[in-house]
Amino acid sequence: MDKIKDMLAGAGGNIVLAIVISVVGYYVIKYLMKLLDKVKGVEKLDPTVTRFVKSLIKWLLYIMLIIGVIGILGVPMAQVIAVLASAGVAIGLALQGALSNLAGGILLMIVRPFNVGDYVDAAGASGVVQSINLFYTEILTVDNKRITVPNGNLMNANVVDYTAEPLRRVDLEFSCAKSEKPSEIQQCILDAVAGSALALKDPAPFARISGGTNEAMTFTVRVWCKTEHYWDLYFELNQSIVEAFAAKGVQAPALRVVNDKA
After folding, report:
1. Where does 2-94 sit in CATH, by number?
2. Apex CA 119: angle with CA 200 and CA 201, to 5°?
């Protein structure tokens, strides 16, 4: 009992110091992370890289704090390393999903299939990329739902980036009666497209017959625009072309009547 009392008395100071260092270190790390945001030039960096690097620095600082606290407690680092090495296989198997996500996060920074602010469709999620962290990526949907996607899944999935290129093409289809003149319908569509300030003239708009039935003709319309104007132009053309058809008196496809005498 005397030996135990002596050991506790000797370790008591180290335990108190370790607690103090843990608390102080926690607040120091928070202060350093806030200070990092105020460093000149950080705001000029790519947001994707900035958030990832900040997350990585924070984790490294916490690891350094934990190692320092272990050293203060008097635990020999050689024994700590030996224990970690012996448990490495078990930890690796238990955390293989997390390690896969960590590797995925690092690869996302290297390969850069998308950036923060891009609208993507990947791993079953569609929306604007809000942040790319060490283990997961946050995506905000158009109806304001936040989806957390593991980075490992993103690296193994097909990624469609709708905002990667400066231009996009709006594809639409319209039908009219077979009795109408194709050239007049084509010109009516092109005139409606020309009335939009969002439609680009180069590449030139396209409107041609792409199919039909005995009662109808189908016209395919293709118009290029800036990526940020895609949905505005999409809805504008749907309305303006229908209104142009109505103004010209374009007939809708006739309904096929089926007589069932059975």
Report:
1. 1.10.287
2. 5
CATH assignment, 105-161: 2.30.30.60
Other Cβ atoms closer than 10 A to 223: 25
* Rounded-to-integer distance, Cα 149 and Cα 20, Å: 37
CATH architecture of the domain with range 167-248: 2-Layer Sandwich (3.30)
Q: How far apart are CA 77 and CA 11, in angstroms?
A: 17
Residue 233 C-alpha from the chain's centroid: 23
Q: Residue 55, CB half-sphere, CA atoms under 13 Å: how many?
A: 17
CA distance 152 to 101: 4
**Span 24-65, pLDDT tens digits:** 888 888 888 888 777 766 666 666 667 777 777 888 888 888
Q: How far apart are CA 92 and CA 96, in angstroms?
A: 6
* pTM of the predicted protein model: 0.63
Looking at the chain, the domain(s) classified CATH 1.10.287 span: 2-94
d(CA 210, CA 196): 23
Q: Where in the chain is the domain with CATH 3.30.70.100?
A: 167-248
- What letter does residue 205 receive in the DSSP assignment? P
3-class secondary-structure state, position 73:
coil
State the Cα angle at 91 between 86 and 93, rounded to 5°: 115
State how far the Cα of 186 lies from the Cα of 233, in Å rounded to an integer: 19
DSSP class of residue 40 equals T
CA 62 to chain centre: 28
pLDDT per position as a tens digit, 144-166: 999 999 998 888 889 999 999 99
